[in-house]
Fold this protein.
Amino acid sequence: MDPKTKVAVLISGRGSNMEALIRAAQAPSCPFQIALVLANKPDAKGLEIAAEAGVEALCVDQKPFGKDREAHERAIDAALRERGVEVIALAGYMRILTPFLVDAWEGRMLNIHPSLLPKYPGLDTHARAIAAGDVEAGCTVHLVTAGVDEGPILGQAHVPILPDDDDHTLAARVLEQEHKLYAATLARFVSEQRIKA
Ligand code: GRF
């Protein structure tokens, strides 16, 4: 049988989506493996969680690169290629990408966003959905393109917004769905890529 598709998860923080992907990858039938977890900051909590789960956890610290975001991304790209990574999953990676990384990984880089895109790209999605009087919210997995949170949508999950929700309660309800949606969408995506290959 073909080896599983090698996925790198890029994080900046707590890494709960990353953890969900690591757990999903442990199933024998899962078509992807998490080859690397990479953070842009040394204090990203998710690095510890990945290491504890036996996954290589690497920090390519953005600090020494200062404002040169492309140089930072070139270092990330080199680390990914050294490990034979085939697909990138952004999971709470809180740095806007330059065209260098976006172009280099076009069609092979996914992101999860906590809204029903195209509604509410950017930050504070839950507060904005509540303020708008929406009756539902959700999350989206999409391919990464040059426009922030604009790439082709691969999957969405919907949740209700309840009358007494605040952004924290809504975020928690959405996050639960994010964890399921990301693993399922990534599995489908890599399976489809293999059929095409
Ligand atoms: C998630 O809500 C994700 O949709 C967004 O950033 C958050 C990351 O959370 N892009 P975690 O680090 O996966 O827990």
